[in-house]
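Re: the request from the purification team.
They wanted to know what the chain is likely to look like in 3D before they choose a buffer screen. I agreed to run a prediction and write the result into the notebook, where they can find it.
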Amino acid sequence: QVHLVESGGGLVQAGGSLRLSCAASGNIIKLNNMGWYRQVPGKQREWVAIITTGGMTHYTESVKGRFTISRDNAKNSIYLQMNSLKPEDTAVYYCNADHQDGIYSLPLWGQGSQVTVSS
């Protein structure tokens, strides 16, 4: 089995910064795209940022220029640097990875990290 473990998050004032980390562990065969999603109560989970194995990045419009996703393939980890945080960024953030084992591909999720931005 492969697990994703998140760290970081917390409470910050508007305009501040936080960094989320996510590390994969277990019987890792291949990690393809990895990314971050977020969810607020009563709403669907939305994607925030994605990074490919080659390092290409994509961001949802609302975080462009403020968030940066990065990846360390040697550590099977990704990170999300969040700057200029806004109250509307408040959510539970989830790490996601596409784990490939032969012809099978399975999406994995972290446990979630609460990010709260106060105004």
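For the purification team: Residues 94 and 112 are 5 Å apart (CA to CA).
Please add any questions underneath this entry.
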